Structures are given as C-alpha cells and as structure tokens.
Amino acid sequence: MPNIFSRQPKPKQKDAIPSGFDWSHAKTALSLAASVGKAAGISHLEGAAEIAIKIIEIVETMKRNKEECISIARDITDLLDVIKDIMERGRNVKQNEILMKNVQKLESDLGIIKTKLVKISNRKTKFHVTSDAEIIKECKGKIRDYMEIFNTKASVNIWQNTGEILKGQEDLKEAMAHIAKTHDQSNITYDDLERITPTASPVFFGREELVAEGVDHLVNNSQAFLAILGAGGIGKTSIALHINNAPQVKTKYGKASYFLPCEVLPDAKLLLQGLIQRLGIEVGQGESQHKKLEDYFRFNTQSILLILDNFETPWNHDPLGIENILGKLASFVQSSMIVTMRGLNGPGPVEWKTLGLEDSIPPLTPESASEVFSAISGKQELKKTGDSIQAILKNLDYVPLAITLIA
Ligand SMILES: Nc1ncnc2c1ncn2[C@@H]1O[C@H](COP(=O)(O)OP(=O)(O)OP(=O)(O)O)[C@@H](O)[C@H]1O
Ligand SMILES: [Mg+2]
C-alpha cells in the first residue's frame, strides 16, 4: 500500500533550519487546512489545524528537546495536510460519522499534546529530562497512530466509500419504508418479503455466547419473547438468523419460523398484511384479516416463531397500532417472537428478555473483529498490515457492519 505521508522533499526556503524543517511552509500548510475545515463547515478540522499552528510556534521557541519536537511538528503538519486532502477530494465526507469522530478525537488529542509541550518548553532545569523524553515519545506515538489511521484509509479511499455505503444503507431503508407506506396494502406480497429476507452469513465470529443465550431462552420457555437491541450494524439481524438456525430451535419450531423484514411494514396495517402473507393465510374478499389471523392461531397447535426484524420502523411510525398487534400476537399461546430493533427497550406491552448483559448487543472483541476482517479480506493482508488494521478496527469501534465494508 503506498504511503502518502512519504512525500517528495520540498525545496528549502530561506527560513528553513538545519534540521530540514520549514517553519514557514508548515504554518502555511496548516492555515490552508484550517481554511478548508472552515469552508467545509468541519469545525474540528479548523480547530485541529489552529492548535497545530500553536504547537509549531511552541516548538519553534524551544531550547531543549528541539529536534525531537520538530519531528512531532513535522508529522502533525503532514497529517493535517493529508486530512485536508481527504476533505477536499471526498464526497459526503461530513456524513461519514467515523471520519468526523476521528477528526474530533484528533483535535482533542492535539490540545493535550500542546499542553504537554508547553510544560516541557517552560522547564527551567534539566531535572525532568527522563520524564520529558517519555512525554515526547508518547506524543510521537499518538501522532503516528493517527498517521496509520488516516494513511491506510485515505490511500484506499475507504473514508469516502464507507461513509457513502453506510449512508446508502440508511437511504435504502428509508426508501423501502417510504415505498411500502405509499404502496397499496394488498401489494405487499410473499415474494416482496422473500426478496429482502436475508440468510445467515457463514462469516460470523464472536457471538457464540449471545446465540447460546437466545437459543436457551427460546427452547426453555413454551412462549418466549426475545429482544435483540443495539446500534445500527452491530449485528442484531445476524444474531437472530443464527439463533433461528440452531438445531434446538429447529427441533422446537420445525418449519414454523417466519422472518418478517419490518422495514417494509411501517404500520399496523402493513404488518398485519405481512403476517398474513408470511403465514400463508388465505383471506377472501370482504373477510377480516384480523379474524383470519386469530382463526389461524386458534386452529394451529404447532409452536410458531416470528422474527420481526428492523422493528424500529413500524414501532416509530405507528406505535399505537403496533402495540395493539403485538399484544394480540403475544396472547396466542403458541407464538414466540424475536424482535431486532435499534433502541434501548423492547417494544410495547410484551415482557421481552433482552439479549446480552447490558440489554444491548456489544461491539465485537478486538480478536473477533480481526477474525471477521481476515475471513473476508484474506489472511495474508492482515499479516502484512496487522498493526494498521488493528488501529482501523479499533477506530471502527469494532462494529461488524463497518468492518465488513472495510474488509
Ligand atoms: N459476528 C459477526 N461476524 C461477522 N460479520 C458480522 C457479524 N455480525 C454482523 N456481521 C455482518 O455485519 C453486517 C451488519 O450486520 P447486521 O445486519 O446483523 O446488523 P444489524 O445490527 O442488524 O444492523 P441494522 O441495525 O442496520 O439492522 C452484515 O453484513 C453482517 O453479515
Ligand atoms: Mg438488522
């Protein structure tokens, strides 16, 4: 992977000092980064660049530790130059939460580095030589980490792509909900549901305990209500699908487990319509769908598992209607449900067991995140670029969707 921090040496100007650091060029480059931040409305880039200029000024006046600190100043200048390029070249960069979060973190870390360098430059004695060397090393390490993060991502344009794909996924969900809402209710067909029903991906790491906990709850309660809650892309649907595939769950529910992609069923009417289609209930002209659903459960003795995926869509659009239908479903003794939902609480009047210790799904562990990355991208790559990949995975907060996109 090309390293975009290794640039062609710039011609020396008159205020360049023997160390090769060009103070005037650095300040100009940083002012430019601040202007780009300002023009793009990215206040954390503007802030970071302004702090960086102050750092340069502090280093310029330093008597002791000057050479080491110049190398920090040089790295900071290069780093902000690269971030400026990313902002200039990228489309929709502001919508890339991960990128914005990193720039924000950088601004705050530069503030800390500045404070530390001020302290060092104000020392009157040599008494602190050892601790100063450690502080400088730490600052250097921190900036190097950021260089790894921005360099690797920028050179493969991941920053822009991830943001666009993540945004694209959101747009798609919204669009699907919108289409469904403006659709004639009778147009939600079995095939519509089937087309967007996902299957469990074979690449699945680090969720053994959560899956076991869910399976245990489903098979050891005659009627089980399981809520899988958490942030977008954390892996809720994947966990639900793997729970559903567990042999014990298959034994209990047989073929009677039904997946409803609720992002296309944004209100009670459509949810009912989806259920009717999924369960294969025949409703004749003029007949009541509610009545047919009730009859279905009245005459069926088999345990039924309903997987209500992306339930935040109907729940946020039509809470009253959905509460009513959920209450009804829960009242049928043979029905069990799994909901996956972005949020902190299970929906409606049902007593949900929420999966996980914190009532929401945690991110992957660093080890599982690495496994996901190497399974998708190939082990060789991880070996070669192990450290920078680790830094990226950490930066992605070990969220499976983000890791999958990057890999
Ligand atoms: N444990 C895992 N190991 C590997 N890949 C995973 C894991 N969990 C999720 N993924 C992948 O991450 C992506 C997002 O996962 P998933 O759709 O399950 O998230 P979600 O929480 O349901 O998201 P949303 O809130 O958008 O519905 C999918 O491509 C999935 O295959
Ligand atoms: Mg999901």
Automatic annotation (TrEMBL):
It comes from the Eukaryota. InterPro entries: Adaptor_Cbl_N_dom_sf, MLKL-like_MCAfunc, nSTAND1, P-loop_NTPase. One of its GO terms (biological process) is cell surface receptor signaling pathway. Residues 190-316 form the Novel STAND NTPase domain. It holds the Pfam family nSTAND1. SUPFAM superfamilies: P-loop containing nucleoside triphosphate hydrolases. PANTHER family: PLANT BROAD-SPECTRUM MILDEW RESISTANCE PROTEIN RPW8 (PTHR36766), TIR-NBS TYPE DISEASE RESISTANCE PROTEIN-RELATED (PTHR36766:SF30). This is Novel STAND NTPase 1 domain-containing protein. It comes from Tetrapyrgos nigripes. The lineage of its organism: Eukaryota, Fungi, Dikarya, Basidiomycota, Agaricomycotina.
